[in-house]
Design goal:
7-stranded mixed sheet, 14 helices, Metallo-beta-lactamase, Chain A, 32% helix, Rossmann fold, 466 residues
Length: 466
């Protein structure tokens, strides 16, 4: 009975862990590695385990850094079931198909140059048919209901409050006379976030695997974040520019639209045209609408009284490529929400290329940016960035609004941890070095909590090693 850490150990992305119990092997998450220049090469390498040896996959939620290598896993021989929360099952339908299209598009783009140079062509990491195949293996479950995954392994999904369908995974393990409870946090959301519920409390665990994305930081409170957004919009209007918001299609896009509806008059949004330039975000918003039972109380009331909510009459859904290209005609007065959230691809790349040379352009960063991504370079204030292989002058005004992040900060993580009985050992994943070290030291020195940073390929014996 043990756990091996294979992903999100030396970086934030690529969540991937192996649980072995009672002769069975379970994979927790199978995420895409993102951000670094080596990411594509790393994603193409063999898994450090045989896909055919996996008995079951358990997925915490749909974000690509947790689910994005599932098509590759199945392509390399995995034929078992993939278990996740019901809403996540619907969302990964959208996310994996979109990821496959991006893989195909990127390969086509690179191969045009390779053909000219006489170089070998590059196959996409996986294709649309690979993503389609995965979806047939997905099984959805409700929050709070325990189910038997394999002999000696029971699973329960609890609301992580990160995005719709995001789950804390509780594993009840038994091998002979030995019983252990392992809790995998997945991604823990902020408390008091609009639309979705707060993270669920968990009382019992023998070991916790926990994310640490903002483990050494504190977000602004909700009202300060709303005030900050209003000030940015007012400044952009005064400058006569456009606002570009790289946003994750799942979670941030829906929350941004929620705030715009609620603050329509205060932010004087009638001065603007708002564009949701992401077919995936448009489709994901439909999924959000289809799961009212997962809303928090405020959003449940709002949904019932939707006709009383200020309408975004100036909201434009840019579904087609032509719709997206037409946004370039707006030299000022446009708020563009487009993917991807870390500016690693998608339509936001074209808008950034067109507009960041203009000092009147405002870019709002509202989610975590991995070092080395275009989003990370914008946050660092680099004066020249490479987009689609060409250097682009960056004179835009970039604002980082941490209070909109889907990840909880150190205070949120501690609030969740304080729901446990006692202080079970914690292994930290899913964070950069500073975040993991900061949270580990905070846990050890301020709370006398045994905490370690998970190392790549580290094996933890759940019987004798805890």
């Amino acid at each position: 009975m043990d756990i091996t850490f294979y992903g999100a150990t030396e970086s934030v992305t690529g969540s991937c862990h192996i649980v072995r119990c009672n002769g069975h092997t379970v994979l927790l998450d199978c995420g895409l590695i993102q951000g670094s220049r080596k990411a594509d090469k790393l994603n193409r390498e063999d898994f450090p385990f045989s896909a055919k040896d996996i008995d079951a996959v358990v997925l915490s939620h749909g974000h690509i850094d947790h689910s994005g290598r599932l098509p590759l896993l199945c392509k390399r021989g995995y034929r078992g079931e993939i278990h996740t929360q019901n809403a996540s099952a619907d969302l990964i339908d959208i996310l994996l198909k979109d990821s496959a299209r991006i893989q195909e598009y990127d390969s086509d783009w690179y191969n045009r140059k390779r053909r000219k140079d006489g170089e070998p062509l590059r196959e996409p990491l996986y294709r649309s048919q690979d993503a389609e195949r995965v979806l047939k293996q997905v099984r959805g479950h409700r929050y709070g209901e325990s189910f038997n995954l394999l002999p000696g392994i029971d699973i329960r999904f609890l609301d992580a409050g990160h995005i719709l369908g995001s789950a804390i995974v509780e594993l009840q393990l038994q091998e002979g006379e030995h019983k252990r409870v392992v809790v995998f946090s997945g991604d823990i959301g902020q408390y008091d976030t609009p639309i979705i519920n707060d993270p669920s409390s968990v009382a019992q665990a023998d070991m916790i695997i926990m994310e640490s994305t903002y483990g050494n930081r504190h977000h602004r409170d909700r009202q300060s974040t709303i005030d900050e957004l209003g000030e940015i919009i007012e400044k952009a209007h005064s400058d006569g520019g456009n606002i570009l918001i790289p946003a994750f299609a799942i979670g941030r896009s829906q929350e941004l639209l929620y705030h715009m509806g609620m603050q329509y008059e205060a932010w004087q949004l009638d001065n603007w045209q708002v564009f949701l330039d992401s077919p995936m975000a448009i489709e994901a918003s439909r999924v959000y609408w289809d799961y009212p039972q997962l809303y928090d109380n405020e959003t449940t009331r709002l949904r019932k009284g939707i006709l009383d909510m200020p309408r975004l009459s100036n909201l434009n859904f840019s579904r087609s490529v032509e719709d997206s290209k037409a946004i370039a005609n707006y030299k000022h007065g446009a708020i563009v929400i487009a993917g991807s959230g870390m500016c690693t691809g998608g339509r936001i790349m074209h808008h950034l290329r067109n507009h960041i040379p203009n000092p009147r352009t405002h870019v709002i960063i509202c989610g975590y940016q991995s070092p080395g991504t275009l989003g990370g370079r914008l946050v660092n204030g680099e004066e020249e960035v490479k987009i689609h292989g060409k250097w682009v002058e960056n004179r835009a005004q970039t604002h980082t609004v941490g209070g909109l992040s889907a990840h909880g900060d150190q205070a949120d993580l501690m609030r969740w941890l304080n729901g446990f009985n006692g202080k079970p050992p914690i292994y930290l994943v899913h964070g950069n070095t500073g975040a993991k070290t900061g949270l580990r030291d905070h846990l050890r020195h301020e709370h006398d909590w045994p905490a370690s940073i998970a190392q790549d390929a580290q094996v933890v014996d759940l019987i004798s090693g805890l």
